[in-house]
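Replying to the earlier thread about multi-chain prediction with a worked example.

Input:
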Amino acid sequence: MSEAAKTPYKPPVPELGPGQTSYTSITEKISGIVLTRNTPVAWFIFFAIGFLLLHGLMVGVPYLLFEGVGIWGLNNPVGWGWAIINFVWWIGIGHAGTLISAVLLLFRQKWRTSINRAAEAMTIFAVLCAMQFPLLHTGRPWLACYWLLPYPNSMDIWPQFRSPLIWDVFAVSTYLTVSLVFWFVGLVPDFASMRDRTKNRIGQVIYGMLSLGWRGSAIHWERYEMASLLLAGLSTPLVLSVHSVVSFDFAVALIPGWHTTIFPPYFVAGAIYAGFAMVLTLMIPMRMIYGLEDFINERHLNNMAKVMLASGMIVAYGYFMEQLIAWYSASTYEGFMMQNRMHGPYSAYYFFLILCNIVVPQLLWIRYFRTNMFWLFFVCQFINVGMWLERFIIVVTSLHRDFMPSSWDMFHPTIWDITIYVGTIGLFTVLFFLFIRGVPMISLHEIRTLLVSKDHK
Amino acid sequence: MNDSIYEESTALHPYLDTLQQRALIVGVLGIIATIVGYFTAHEQFFRSYLLAFTFWIGLPLGSIGILMIHHVGGGTWAFSIRRLLEAGSRTLPLMFFLSLPILFLGMHELYEWTHLEVVAHDDILLHKAPYLNESFFIIRTFFYFAVWGILAFFLNRWSLQQDKTTETYPTHRLQIISGPGIVLFFLTVTMASIDWLMSLEPHWFSTIFGVIYIVGMGLMTWGFMYLVALPLSRRKPLDWLITEQRLRDLGTFMLACVMLWAYTSFSQLLIIWSANLPEEITWFITRLEGGWQYIGYGMVLFHFAVPFLFLISSTMKSKTKLLSFLAIGLIFMRLVDLYWIIAPAFTKVPAEHGPSFHSTGITLHWLDLAIPIGIGGILISLFFSQLKKRILIAQNDPRFTDLFDSDKNHG
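Result:
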């Protein structure tokens, strides 16, 4: 056999770069990002952009509340528009954080330590953005508790428990609670480090309160480890359950294109896919702005790209099964739905979706594209767009030509659909950059453990 | 190191010989019963045969799938059972020979769509005829086995190559083949599940069906590997590699498969039940009446609830005896699950107009046990004879050396 075919195995690079040799260097580097007066210019630029976009929400929401959901592009066959698309998109993005912090912890994957904090923050902010939409689409959010939460009342009116929309309320609120608690518990030891390091009196008080009296005693650490493991165990089913329930919103209906049994695992894979694309979209610029090459190196990019490729292939499997069974079922409606998707008025969107979600990410089979920051970022943008389009295709193409041809119509988003969606992107950006500025974005105490295992070798 | 492992592996041969012979005796007895059944209960024979075939092919296929996931994902657990999985993957040729009776003798007995006079009067079957026809079915099954065979061949060949050289290119090749291999594997096994099982009721369809079948194969393979790994963990040369931690890991993988099986099966039921469409719900109606429902309830209990409750606790998971019972139980429940998928398809009340979906009631034939035991005996005997062919620890894998070093450091 030729020499070229004998490429040797290439071991992965260590999780921690060569620049970090001691606890002090790690602590100073990471806490220095927060405890400094020299905020990088790039931070201000990104924050300003986010703040500007946030005004979409500031303007759009009051007008929506004043005027009602009629300002959106909803019409009779397409009763679900951008609100549900954006909801699913944001919820999906959140899943990467949970996968990284819970599942990878249980699988003892050490490379997760430098990205889990930021990914968990991303999860919480994404869920907050997602929650805007179901609340807003009720038209009168101040009554949402009354409609959605089951509590007995004098009229004996209960929510419809057979509706997956009610399951959503439970799934998403559980998700937010557990993610928030998990994130905060992980932060407690780091808040204590910040409390001890900051010279600013106000900072000392605030970090002091947040650290809940943490002194780092052995018994604290023992309880902390136990709590982390329990929360990881609690979060793991949430990775599957939340997006499965979201997929039930569609799948338990009998609309062709919504009603198919592959939806739960396929939605979960899509969520992880979109989530990792968003983590990389955030972490690649962060690494450049703050010089985090020692913490987020080739190994992290490579592994995250591999997770993305794997989940992307599961999504492709879902598309393939939908196509195959639409034909195999011999059902007129299933067949028409697929024909309409591929050759109907939205066919350009469908093929662009295939390009974004399936064709372009095939580059990730090649190591070069997995480890080159520029190319990886480029592929991630396709996935971010593609996953939004996927939900658009599922929602709109299935509804706009329903069972009764006389009611067929096209869906056209209005400026208010766009304003409110862009507004949530602003909200997300602002929250994320506030997090970067106020909280150590890499887990100090967990990254220190990498140094221990390095020393032993 | 190499020499001592070689000697210790050879020293295990008498032990493995005993297991191989016992399995062979059981297998031969089962096969004799099978042959008797072929002549005495011809109508039932292929139904039970399909059950045994779709059940036992889970071992070679599960082994191939897990091996590829190991090569792509790494992980300490897999090095301890890698040679076991490789031996499992080398039982594939036997399953290929066992597929021939279905293809060339039993297709007409099993599959309604092979009856051209039925197809001619059925619009749905006419629509599916380009896919569901005899020659394409045979070609597809050959194609699946070709794909699986090629994957198994290279996974074994390069692993053996790595034993003999300290250069690391065979490991790199194993990694290279496994990524695309997993994609091919999922597609072919899904299609195979549609062909062999879903098309028993050719009007019915479900997009998650292949996933459920693949997860079931995984569960069966983990259970089987646990049962083989446990006695080997007390004997050289694997005693230091299959530690209590590794055995617990195997339990964790069983738990993952139990949960995934419940998740996918429940999703399928919930989605189909809630829409209640005539073309889909009929499959469940057949299986939830006439006594079949008790098997369904039994699976909720013994394919999910009971093993879940035991496996979720790490204290229980460390009890090897308990876990071996669980593994045996879960492997048996895999058989019951496939029985619940296959057997009711043949108990439909004959209808004068249109397709029928009510069941005449539960049936259990002695062949439903005899053929799985026969094929299983032969297959397990082949497994042990393959296991003897190589030293029990794969050598020179650079990933293994790294992990072993870090293991030592952490005690």
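The domain at 3-450 of chain A is CATH 1.20.1630.10 (Formate dehydrogenase/DMSO reductase fold).

Feel free to reuse this layout for your own posts.
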